[in-house]
Amino acid sequence: MADDPEKKPDFSSQVGAKATRKLRARRHRTPGLWFGLGMMGLIGWSVVVPTLLGAAIGYWLDKHEPGQYSWTLALLMAGLMLGCFNAWFWVSREDEAMRDEQEDKDE
Questions:
Q1: What InterPro entries would the database entry show (predicted)?
Q2: CA–CA gap between residue 47 and residue 87 (Å, rounded)
């Protein structure tokens, strides 16, 4: 097999390309394990806190204003829906940031 100079880039351009990739990798580090665990914690707490607050307020209302329907169950569900919306907001925001970063890398 003969070495075709048109198909192989020269040594200096290979070194330059590798150096550029290394510098880009240092600037845009990939999220690690701690980032993932932190995001799971953020999402978990963003669901749990409104759910528990809704249940606590509902329980208090049931004690002080008893009625035909359960305030605890209603506000627990409302808090859960609010928490899920909150988690969706955080995940979509992080996804958008990751997509923007990926587009920057491709350019």
A1: ATPase_gene1, ATPase_put
A2: 6
Confidence (pTM): 0.62
Q: What CA–CA distance (Å, rounded) separates 90 from 73?
A: 26
Instruction: Give dist(CA 27, CA 41) in Å, integer.
Output: 26
Residue ranges in the chain whose pLDDT is less than 50: 1
Distance CA 96, CA 107 (A): 17
DSSP 48-104: HHHHHHHHHHHHHHHHHS--SS-HHHHHHHHHHHHHHHHHHHHHHHHHHHHHHHHHH
Dihedral sign computed on CA atoms, order 46, 52, 55, 61: negative
Tokens standing for residue 59: 């329980």
DSSP string, 90-106: HHHHHHHHHHHHHHHHH
